[in-house]
């Protein structure tokens, strides 16, 4: 990236992300309107941000090393320091983003009265996330950030003290940067390369979660084999169930903070992101011709079955959120179904054709319109569907 | 004839892999394609499956132009290519259940090893056996195999000969790209050297 491009990107980023601070009234009118709001909304935003940052830090994406470095430049004992520096960088970025969203929500709807409690909670959770990520995994640890959902039900100070004590208790354990094996580092490097390559070539559906074995030996033996395949493939991604839970909490947090945004938009966007990991069974058949040969069924039947299953999952997910307090409407139900259709449409596009860039000159800027057209397959339906769902009469 | 080519040719960049190829393979016949690395054996098989367009000439498989995107074509033509893949999370038993109930035919486990171990944990030879067994067990009129002997041990290669013979006996047109001379000697009705 050229220096001028970096400067331009920075100016645009500061403009976009800074607007809630110098255009507060306008942003407030767009997102909140005349709806009554409570400062508790900003605490919900903070808890959601902290949970996401905590969970992302627990992925331990800092534990990788280039195999060549391990072979030729790993004799000075610098490896733990490098890994720790990487951990600190990722951790600081994630929690800075959480702090930014808390500040924005505070500007728009007001800061809570107990600012001290909020600050202690922030520091304690950030400390615990760092202490956990620097040591070896604890079974079931990825569910711990969900505990932030109860932070609103108990005094913030109590929660913050428990978290801080846990962080201190873990701080003296052996750091995994010293004990992690070379094999694990290389494996993580390979996975990282696959992700980066997929991102570089805009093959984002390669990033959908891989399946894990299902314990039912005869899962695919019997009639309705396409349905069985889709259900088994979905169950094989059960490890991705944390995402719907986080997104459900995020939708509730967004509703509490920005009540002017309708349930349809929140459930549609949240539902789309929730369903994406569970489209992997049909996505892999489109991406890998060698897998498609195992299943003798038309694309139409495959897509219809997947859409049907995803609609059921999406309605269940939305139902739980409505029970937790989000207003229900016919438009919101339509939005959820649109999200299922859009998710299937997204992952069933063919491979990107870089020969059809379709460059168009617009206002002096060359835009790869052909490539964009291929990339927005799926999100286009979501956007149009959500706009239409807003006009559905109650 | 289930497979017929006329004046078939493929050029890769500046290099002509083959040209003017006239092939005719009927049901119950086996054609082995041999040649050095890079001679175009796999390319020829891909042309027969419709996953690569030839530079010149024409191909007819099962009475029409090959097109792997067509479900009807895939139903009649079974293949084991480099891109053949397994679902990492499924066991060989689950793979064969999927195949059997999808194509509506009985598929037994046969010589497939470790039937209840996820495919991700199988060795290269075990994965190869599963792919070959599945390709022959499912209904097919045409069988295309690209270097099927790869990763197989001595027993596996003998088993492979039986497998190909079974397919030919059932009336399929079989095309095998192979370097393995004993296999060629045993199963080939015709040999084409590229």
TrEMBL record, chain A:
The keyword Membrane applies. Keywords: Membrane, Transmembrane, Transmembrane helix. This is Uncharacterized protein. The chain crosses the membrane at residues 39-58, 91-109, 115-133, 145-172, 264-283, 304-324, 330-347, 359-376.
Automatic annotation (TrEMBL), chain B:
Gene3D superfamilies: P-loop containing nucleotide triphosphate hydrolases (3.40.50.300). Residues 3-194 form the ABC transporter domain. The keyword ATP-binding applies. One of its GO terms (molecular function) is ATP binding. It comes from the Bacteria. The keyword ATP-binding applies. Keywords: ATP-binding, Nucleotide-binding. This is ABC transporter ATP-binding protein. It comes from Amycolatopsis ultiminotia.
């Amino acid at each position: 990236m050229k220096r001028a491009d970096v400067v331009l990107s920075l100016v645009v980023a500061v403009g976009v992300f800074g607007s809630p601070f110098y255009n507060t009234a306008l942003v407030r009118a767009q997102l909140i309107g005349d709806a009554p709001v409570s400062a508790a909304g900003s605490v919900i935003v903070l808890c959601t941000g902290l949970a996401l940052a905590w969970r992302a830090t627990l992925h331990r994406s800092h534990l990788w090393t280039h195999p060549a470095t391990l072979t030729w430049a790993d004799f000075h004992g610098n490896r733990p320091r490098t890994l720790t520096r990487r951990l600190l960088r990722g951790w600081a970025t994630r929690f800075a983003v959480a702090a930014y969203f808390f500040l924005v929500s505070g500007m728009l709807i007001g800061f809570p009265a107990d600012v001290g409690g909020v600050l202690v909670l922030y520091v304690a959770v950030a400390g615990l996330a760092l202490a956990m990520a620097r040591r070896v995994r604890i079974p079931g640890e990825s569910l711990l950030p969900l505990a932030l959902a109860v932070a609103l039900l108990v005094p913030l100070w109590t929660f913050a003290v428990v978290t801080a004590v846990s962080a201190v208790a873990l701080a003296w354990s052996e750091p995994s940067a010293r004990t992690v094996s070379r094999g694990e580092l290389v494996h993580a490097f390979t996975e990282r390369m696959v992700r980066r390559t997929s991102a570089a070539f805009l093959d984002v559906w390669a990033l959908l979660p891989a399946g894990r074995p299902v314990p039912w030996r005869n899962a695919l033996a019997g009639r309705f084999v396409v349905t069985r395949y889709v259900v088994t493939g979905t169950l094989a991604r059960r490890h991705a169930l944390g995402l719907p839970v986080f997104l459900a909490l995020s939708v509730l947090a967004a509703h509490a903070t920005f009540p002017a945004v309708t349930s349809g938009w929140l459930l549609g966007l949240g539902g789309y992101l929730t369903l994406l990991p569970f489209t992997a069974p049909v996505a892999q058949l489109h991406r890998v011709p060698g897998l498609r040969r195992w299943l003798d069924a038309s694309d139409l039947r495959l897509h219809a079955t997947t859409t049907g299953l995803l609609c059921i999952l999406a309605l269940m997910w939305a139902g739980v959120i409505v029970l937790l307090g989000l207003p229900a409407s016919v438009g919101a139900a339509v939005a959820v179904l649109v999200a299922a259709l859009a998710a299937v449409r997204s992952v069933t596009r063919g491979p990107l054709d870089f020969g059809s860039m379709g460059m168009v000159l617009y206002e002096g800027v060359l835009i790869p319109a052909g490539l964009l057209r291929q990339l927005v397959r799926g999100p286009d339906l979501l956007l149009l569907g959500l706009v239409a769902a807003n006009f559905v009469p109650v | 004839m289930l497979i017929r080519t006329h004046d078939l040719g493929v050029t890769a960049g500046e290099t002509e892999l083959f040209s003017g190829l006239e092939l005719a393979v009927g049901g119950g016949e086996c054609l082995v394609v041999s040649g050095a690395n890079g001679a175009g054996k796999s390319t020829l098989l891909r042309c027969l499956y419709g996953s690569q367009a030839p530079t010149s000439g024409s191909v007819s498989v099962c009475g029409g132009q090959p097109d792997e995107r067509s479900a009807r074509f895939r139903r009649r033509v079974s293949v084991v290519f480099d891109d053949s893949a397994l679902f990492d999370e499924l066991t060989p038993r689950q793979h064969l259940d999927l195949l059997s109930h999808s194509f509506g035919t009985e598929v037994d486990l046969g010589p497939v090893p470790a039937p209840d171990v996820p495919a991700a944990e199988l060795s290269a030879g075990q994965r190869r056996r599963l792919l070959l067994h599945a390709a022959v067990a499912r209904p097919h009129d045409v069988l295309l195999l690209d270097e099927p002997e790869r990763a197989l041990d001595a027993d596996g290669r003998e088993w492979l000969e039986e497998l190909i013979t079974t397919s030919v006996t059932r009336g399929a047109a079989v095309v095998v790209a192979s370097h393995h001379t004993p296999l060629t000697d045993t199963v080939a009705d015709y040999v084409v050297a590229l």
